[in-house]
Amino acid sequence: MSNLIKNELVKIFKKKTIYITMGVIFLLLIFMNSMIKFANRETSLANYYLYNESYINSIKEELKTLDPDKPSDVTTYINLATEIEISEIMNKYKEADWKLAIINERISPYISERNTYKYGAEKNETQVEEINKKIEDLTSKLDRNDWKYFAEEDLETAEQKINEIQTQKEQTEDTQIIKNLELELKNAEVEKEIAEYRINKNIPYGNDYLNRAIDNLQNAVSSIAGYDSLDRDLEYREKLDYNEYVKQEAESRYILDTGININESGSLKGILQDFYSQFGLFLIVVIVMIAGTIVSEEFNKGTIKLLLVKPYTRNKILLSKFITTLIMIVFVIIVTIIMQILIGGVLFGFDSLGMPVVEYNFNTNSLQEINIFVYLIIQTLTQLPMIILLAVLAFAISTIFSNSALAITISLLGYMSTAIINQLVMAYNLGFMKYFVTMNWDLSMYLFGGLPLMEGMNMTMSIIICIAYFLIMMIPTFVIFKKRNIKNI
Amino acid sequence: MVHGKTTTIKLILGLQNITSGKVNINGYDIEKEFTHAIKKVGAIVENPDMYMYLSGYQNLKLVANLYKGITKERIDEVVKLVKLEKRINDKVSKYSLGMRQRLGIAQAILHKPNLLILDEPTNGLDPEGIKEMRELLVTLADKEKMAILISSHNLAELDNFCNKVCIIKNGEVIETSEISKIKKEASQEFKIFEVNDVNTAKKVINDLIILDENKFKLNVPKDEVPEIINKLVENKVKIYEVKQEEKTLEDAFFEKTGGNIIE
To answer: Residues of A with CB below 8 A from B10's CB?
Structure first.
């Protein structure tokens, strides 16, 4: 038996195919890593908000052709005038990202509002004056070159809001109103918290990961508060969302507390963390190719006869080929990961490997730090059922029909349609589909106490389902191979 | 030609399911005790099968791995026997058909089988290749003491080096026996006479079959030949040669099968 496996490995490794495909994957990895490296730089807000001069000029030209007194033109006129004005202010303050952020978030709504009063159907001179004052006030604060001023102001506003809500709460006894007030209170509290984060951790307004964490935190807290205030039990899909927000909240706080960007994708650790979702297809292509040719190629070239007249039973011959496929799965995974580590290390440096992966654990309701290599091994184990089942599918089709192209195509289609099938099943809540293989073969959903795709699924059941599918494909394959007549080739 | 030669070989080797009857090799049933029955068998079915992207030696090594106790020396010995020493490390894809046939035989005899089954071993070979193959098979039968089962439709070839023959027509066995016996049964005792004038001879002797203007043949027992010679001499016919007509296996085959008709 071991001799048969040894021979199969010799046949695979003496062929050029494996080297060519692994070489192509190496090049693809270099390409994708480079893309990540150059696409992932933290870009200044100036890149997002500032228009180039010719564009502004063209808008100005367009503005001249419009008449604000015509009802058909007025909306466009207001929009364009606002756009031009904002762009001019931004150009003036483009030296600091936090200024652009303030202009975008706080000044531009005022400009838009003022233009509505100035040009719109209901003209109001006093309002225009009033808003102009506010705009001037804010703009003059930009000149003081101190973003902390805005943060302190936010803090004050939030504290005032909290006090107001609390006094309102004491004055009423209506439970519905109290509920709404509590919801508002939560939002005000997180605003206060964020302002404190900005001041204490020195986080200017802008577009970096810390600001994204702030946005996420705010979004997560208010969503959670929204779900909490509901009078009914959550539906399963809402529970999935709820869990996602709980995770987001914890992660955002971790980022703000430690200043570590745990979601950094532009580092070796970040790429390895998402290895299977980013590069899983590469692995599957090579593995399916090996599994889909190992039997049928011998049939097509006639060399199967050479094997079948040797003193081994057909079961042993087929089993040796299957075990060889499993060995190749392990080989391809390990080699691809090593290639990724080398390429990523050269492009991004190896330092990030020392940083832990941070995952939220729903069992302990806390964040958990995991070594990247341990994390990678855990991920690999959760992906193995899918990889093995796809290999078995290719193996079975190629053995039964002696057709490599069919085997490889069907298996790859199976892999690529998994996401769509699962989304449809969840969207239409098709309960019976929870026994379907694509819903069960990715065990990573069960990691860290996470909720499965559908209600009523659990890891033991998923593993049993995967084993059942394995046997359903393997048993006929062995029976047919054993009974098969070797036709003239 | 679809008469069932290759199918028979496949049945013997367990490559096809047997619907009725039994195959025993070295006392083991091929269906029930496959691994025992096939252990001492070497075979080439249809074409010599080998991995084109490997060298001849690597191909032999693959086969050697699957049997116990095949040493490096044995591989070298077999390579020498099939006269591939010079090219054994070349890729098989560069081999000529004759070399592939010889490598196929090397693969089949590596484990010293006592039964070697060859399906059309000289198919596609040039005359020199056929001669070499014939010599190789004779050597194998002598030196390695193996029985060799050959399927072929080239009767002249079988005539040359086989002892026993089994004729299959439309999937049915028509005859199984020693070649010499078949030939003897088939041949009636024709004598060929070479003379200067067949027309005169025709007038003197009844029932003769004219072959050309100098030759005729006659179906007579040996002891009547002097009498016929006398008659010819009396009539002034000059006799150059009298000989026994030689039958080939081919003639015998056509007599047995009544022509090559696929029904």
So the answer is: 485-486
- pLDDT given for residue B262 in this prediction: 43
Residue B261 has pLDDT above 70, yes or no: no
d(CA A424, CA A429): 8
Contact B39 A3 (CB under 8 A): no
Lowest-pLDDT range of A143-157, A345-359, B98-112:
A143-157
Same-domain pairing of B46 and B136: yes
Q: What's the pLDDT tens digit per position in A59-92?
A: 778 777 777 677 777 788 778 888 887 787 777 7
The residue range of the domain holding B140 is 5-162
Instruction: Note whether residue A335 is domain-resident.
Output: yes
Mark whether B154 and B219 lie in a shared domain: no
Q: Which helix (H) or strand (E) holds A118?
A: helix A108-119
Number of compact structural domains in chain A: 3
CB of B56 within 8 A of CB of B64? no
Residue carrying structure tokens 């991920």: A379
Q: What's the pLDDT at B258?
A: 63
Could A11 and B41 be called an inter-chain contact, meaning their C-beta atoms sit closer than 8 Å?
A: no
ipTM above 0.90 for this complex: no
Percent of chain B with pLDDT over 90: 7
What residue type is assigned to position A190 of the chain?
Answer: V
Give the angle B169-B172-B174 at the CA atoms, nearest 5°: 70
CB A333 within 8 A of CB A318: no
**Domain range enclosing A10:** 2-40+265-483
Residues B135 and B56 in one domain: yes
d(CA B137, CA B125): 15
Distance from CA of B177 to the nearest CA of A (A): 28
> Can you tell me the mean pLDDT for A242-266?
85
Residues A86 and A160 in one domain: no
* CATH code of the domain in which B50 resides: 3.40.50.300
Residue A287 — very low, low, confident or very high, per pLDDT cuts 50/70/90?
A: very high
Look at residues A145, A167, A194 and tell me which one is the last residue of a structural domain. A145
* DSSP structure string for A399-437: HHH--HHHHHHHHHHHHHHHHHHHHHHHHTT-GGGGGSH
> pLDDT tier at A412 (50, 70, 90 boundaries)?
very high
Interface check for A1 against chain B (CB to CB < 8 A): the answer is no
What distance in Å separates the CA atoms of residue A197 and residue A253, rounded to the nearest whole number? 10
Residue of B190 and A304 predicted with greater confidence: A304
When CB atoms are compared, the residue of B16, B46, B62 closest to A302 is B46
Would residue B136 count as lying in a domain?
Answer: yes
Contacts of A309 in chain B (CB under 8 A): 13-15, 38, 41, 43, 45
Question: What tens digit of pLDDT does each residue of A160-217 get?
Answer: 888 888 888 778 777 778 888 888 888 888 888 887 778 787 777 777 788 888 888 8
Which residue's structure tokens are 């990724």?
Answer: A340
Query: What is the total count of domains within chain B?
Result: 2
**pLDDT tens profile B12-65:** 888 888 888 888 888 888 888 888 888 889 998 888 889 999 999 999 999 999
Same domain, B230 and B136: no
